[in-house]
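Friendly challenge for the regulars: who can give me the structure tokens for this chain first? No prize, just bragging rights.
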Amino acid sequence: MTYPAASGQVTPEALFVPTLRQPRLDRVASWVSNATHPPIVGVFSVIIAALVSAKLVAWAWGIGYLALAVLLPTLYVAWLVRQGEITDMQLPDRRQRLKPYCVAIACMSLAALALQWMHAPRLLQQIALINVIQSAALLVTTLRWKVSAHCASMGALAVLTWTLFGAGSLPFCAAVPAVAWARVRMKRHDAPQVLVGALLGVAAAWIVLR
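First reply, four minutes later:
Bragging rights claimed.
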């Protein structure tokens, strides 16, 4: 049986629920969200492709691809932030995502065509195609509904690493629900939005890599 605390007394619950618990969770969610920002995941995917290829030329192709398909769209978003057209780099407003998605798809498509034309390593070509398909699906969905690009990129990375490393990809697979939790925790998305985002990324990677 519990009794109301008298004025000035500390309730037993307060001893077991530190006031910093909520802010700590928020900080963890922010860290996870920032560490898994889609451009960062894109860089990591290219690094994996270069390591698997084990050829020096693969690193050169990877750097060129990242410059066109990742760096340019990211700089464009940074410019939009500086101009005050969007709120921040993570594009919280659905309507603010349309221009960056269009620019990203154009850059990614050019980069993918260049990789194919110059006979770049096959895995790198596949990653480029996955990014184009995934970004196009996100753009179409964003016209009517906001979904999580973070979860889409992590879902695609999970499928990529599963295809390459099998059970060794379990940390990447486990990262997908962690990212989903972080995005919901930060109130950037709700549960259906992170679920659909992850499914879009998984589907895009599965179609290309199967």
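Residues 94 and 142 are 6 Å apart (CA to CA). The chain has one domain: 23-209. Your move, everyone else.
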